[in-house]
Amino acid sequence: MMILLVGVACAIVLGLSIYAGRLLWLLKKQKEQQAARKVAHEKALASHDRKVLQSVLIIVKAMQEEQCDYSEGCWRLSVLLDSLKLSNQLDNEFPAIFNLYNQIKHLSILDERKQMAKRDRMKQDVERMKIEAACVDDIGKTLPLLHQYTTERLAYLANDV
Fold first, then answer.
1. Of 78, 48, 52, 49, nearest to 142 (Cα)?
2. Interhelix angle for 118-160 vs 95-104, to 10°?
3. Judging by beta carbons within 10 Å of its beta carbon (0-12, 13-18, 19+), is residue 157 exposed, middle or buried?
4. 116: left (phi over 0), alpha (psi -120 to 50) or beta
5. What's the whole-number average pLDDT of the chain?
6. Which of 33, 53, 54, 119 has the most CB atoms within 10 Å of its CB?
7. Distance between CA atoms of 77 and 32, rounded to whole angstroms?
């Protein structure tokens, strides 16, 4: 009888050991899948950021070469910089860009602007030009820093991810 109990106990221990081993194997597979999904997600975010940063670089160069008004450039840059997935709080790093944007974002653009009376458009243009004139020095100083940041970030993303 004792041998039978020892045999049953050994069978139970063996069964539990096999079950525990299987659970450990499943856990390992699950962690590997999670790690692979995380890497794929980070690659997707990096790809998005690369595209955005390339656009930022083009706009910064256009602003530096005076091919793009500061108000339009800051509008576009602030939207692009806000859309970055792997960087945040760039409004603290480049306050002049976001400051101009925040001051002009209430002004009409596109179809809304086209539907305005000529007098109202001129009024908004004057307001935009005054705001831009007040910010031009700060933005001029910020553009080389943003160019450097963008170039370094693109290099990092190209090497790291």
1. 78
2. 150
3. middle
4. beta
5. 95
6. 53
7. 38
Cβ(100)–Cβ(140) below 8 Å: no
* DSSP code per residue over 25-69: HHHHHHHHHHHHHHHHHHHHHHHHHHHHHHHHHHHHHHHHTTSS-
Predicted TM-score of the model (pTM)? 0.81
3-state secondary structure of 4: helix
Cα separation, 32 vs 157, whole angstroms = 24
63 pLDDT tier (thresholds 50, 70, 90): very high
pLDDT at 161: 58
| Tokens read off for 49 | 């950021």
Output the six-digit token pair for 91: 């409004």
Distance CA 92, CA 98 (A): 9
Contacts of 146 (CB under 8 A, 6+ apart): 56, 60, 77, 94, 97
* Ramachandran angles phi, psi of 11, nearest 5°: -65, -40
User: Which 3 state secondary structure label does DSSP give 83?
Assistant: coil
Cα separation, 121 vs 130, in Å, equals 14
What b/e readout covers 44-79, taking b as 16+ CB neighbours within 10 angstroms? eebeebbebbeebbebbeebeeeebebbbbbbbbbe
161: amino acid identity, one letter: V
